[in-house]
Structures are given as structure tokens and as C-alpha cells.
Amino acid sequence: MLTCVPSNAQDTRMSERAATEAVRRIVQYSGLTPDLTVREDPSVRTANAYIKGHVRVIAFNPAFITTVLDSSKTNWAAISILAHEVAHHLLGHTLDPSTLRPGDELACDHYSGFILFSMGASLPESLAAIEVAGNPHGTWSHPPKHARSAAIEQGWREAERLRAGVVAAPIALNDDFRFVVRFVGDRSTYYVDRSGALVWFNTQAEPIAFGTFTETPKADGVYQLNWEDQSFFVDRNNAIWRRGEHGLQTIVGRMEAYARP
Q: Do 95 and 133 fall into the same domain?
């Protein structure tokens, strides 16, 4: 059985009971009372957080966890995955699961790194799951591997600074930006920097580039935004559009010129 606090001994079969205990410990390190239901569910591709009725659920595919544990050679990889899903509940993302938000996924990775440091994991152990399971190019639902790794490391180092009593520097955004990007229903604000990167910032104003910005000669738009495997175009009125099925187009946000303070 996989223990909730990983050891060097490797058991690649994660039981529902062990996962429940691991989630309980993760939430306790957040200073909260655990109130989540953990389910083993082979129909889930990896792991997922959702609400069913009034029950907050974390479901995981045992075969996926086994593969990650076999590849990473550390049980901390499973804790990292579960911590990411816990964060979706704690940050309120499961209240509106229909919208894709790159900042939400990165915020959950940041939480995972923070919690794993608090639980005793090293930085390589905290990164183990994303190193073996992260997609280098991103997927329809998650940012690319490099951005997710950066978010985990930022969370881990933030917890390290707090443990050491190091006072964080005053939050200040680098203002080398061209545009501000906002998506409908997304609480995060994104920026396009001078190099053409689409950037998200964590709570400590540390940047993570997760997408790209390009100018396009297409008649239907003047700019194009890409993140994960999705493409958006920005028209001359600064509206951000996405093409859906059958060529249908939907406005999903706005991009505005960055105004320096």
C-alpha cells in the first residue's frame, strides 16, 4: 500500500484508502479540515477534481498512478498529482469546470510545489510527476511541461523562503509588456511581453511563459495567440476569438495595449 508520506521503499499500486489518507494530509498542511471524497476510477484518464451533487470528489486512475510511480521512482509523484487536484477544489475551480483557464492549472501546480515542500519533499521529488507525465507541448487542458515545472518550483521555493523566515521582496511587475490579455470567466490576467511570450504571474509576481503571440497577415485578424494546442485570433477591435467545431467563432476575451503606470 502506498503510504501518505512517501519513503524510499517503492510500491507502485496506490489504493483508494492510501490516496484518501494522502489527501487528508495534504489538506491538513493547508490548515483546513479535510472534506473531500477520494475515488479510484479507471474511467478517468489521469486524475480529476469535480463536484457531484454536494460532494467534492478527487478521482484517480490507478493505472496512470502506477505508470507515474514506475517511471519517477518516487512515491512523492503521486502526492504531487493529488495535491494539484486538491488545489482545484480549494481555489474554487471546480465550481465552474466548463472553461479552460491556463492560470488555474499553473496556480494548482504552484500549490503542489508549496505543499510538497511543507510535507518534506525535495525539489526533484516535487517535480518528479511532471517530469515523467507532463506534455512538452501542452494539451487541450494543460499548459506545456516547462511552464508547469516552473510553477511547481516557484511554489516549492516560496515555501522554502517562508520556512527560513526570509521576507519576500516587494511585489513589482516588470513592465516590459505590449498587451494585457483577459479571457471571459478567467480571474487571471495575462500579458504579452516584448519577446512575444504570453505570460502568467503567480501571487509573488513571478512570471511563467506558457504561450506565444504572433502577428498574422490573415484577413480575419491582426494577431494570433497560441497556448497548449489551441489558437486564438485577435481582431482589429481587440476582441479575442476562438474557432469551434464546424468553423463557428466565439468571442472568448479581449486584448488591450499595456498602459505603463
A: yes
Which positions ≥6 away from 237 have C-beta within 8 Å?
A: none
Residue whose C-alpha cell reads 517503492 in the numeric block? 10
Comparing 183 with 84, the larger pLDDT belongs to: 84
Tens-digit pLDDT profile for residues 123-164:
999 999 999 988 765 555 567 788 899 999 999 999 999 999
CA separation for the pair 27, 6 (Å, rounded): 16
Nearest to 4 by CA among 63, 96, 89, 86: 86
Give the domain range for residue 85: 16-164
Q: How far is CA 140 from CA 25, 72, 143, 229, 257, in A?
A: 30, 24, 8, 6, 27
Cα 48 to the center of its chain, rounded Å = 12
Query: Rounded to whole angstroms, how far apart are CA atoms 258 and 190?
Result: 11
Residue keyed to cell 512523492: 76
Q: Is 63 part of any domain?
A: yes
